[in-house]
Amino acid sequence: MNPTLAAVVLSLFSSVAYASAAVAQERLAARSAGSETGTLGLLAQGAWWWSVTLNASAALLHVAALKYGTLTLVQPLGALTLVAAVPLGARLAGRRVSAVEWRGTALTLTGLAALLVTASGTAPDEVLSLPQALAVAGTTAAVIGVLARGARPGLRHATASGFASGVASALTQTVTVAATDRSDSPFSAQVVVVALLVAAFAAGGLLLSQTAYQGGLGAPLAVVTLANPLAAAAIGLSLLGERLQGGAAGLLLALAGASVAAWGVVTLSRSTPEPAVVPAVAHLEGLADDDHPVAAVLALEPNGAVYEPSLVPRQSDSGHLTSL
Hints:
The protein is mainly α. It is built from twelve helices and no strands. The protein starts with a helix and ends in a 40-residue tail after the last helix.
């Protein structure tokens, strides 16, 4: 199979798995909101473990995609998680996809298509050397430290989360390519050290995103989704020899595609689904929990869910990382 096609297909399945896990986790969080057992009670539910399995599967698919596709190709495709969440969230909420959501989906897909044309290429074969990986890690850690100063959540934390996750993906590609290269040991010092850096930045990205989302999900979600591929593409283009196809025209097309995709991501992350109408009798009989609509990973401000306060997705310990 063509490496570019393989990377796109794997990224698509990864995004669907991430979106499905987010929907499941939000629904479980909504159901357990008033439960005395709280988060610990989720461990006894098979649905929670199913969402963990989906997250793990999505992460593995993303790693496989990085084996076949460049960072400039694979990372922007992470926005497909939002696109996949639209019909999934709408179906479980018992409503139709809104016009705003259709517009955001169309813009995102159009922009990603343009990026696909310019970023397609052969499977990656270059990796970061150990000094390069350490330099990238040190620089990123310093930037994250500046952005994450202060306990008050905000877009700075979201930007830091996106950078951490994007760098984690770049380092993951180095581990994947180096570990599968038969010319060297899969447990060389380079692979082991970079793998530890991946774990550190992936965990850091998750914690930073949880902090950012405390102030509302809409804008932070868009910033995380956009900062992730920006950081990964910067590493790919500057250190891994990745190039856009088509010369100057290809660069202009890529910039236009990135702008359109960003517009679509912002539209999706700021869209507020219309609340499902729940009969008053259901509330009186205590049945509302069973029919609780799910907003998936679509963005809602904390004060935006007038009819259903628990629509705001809650972050859990098994939340996925964006694309690594």
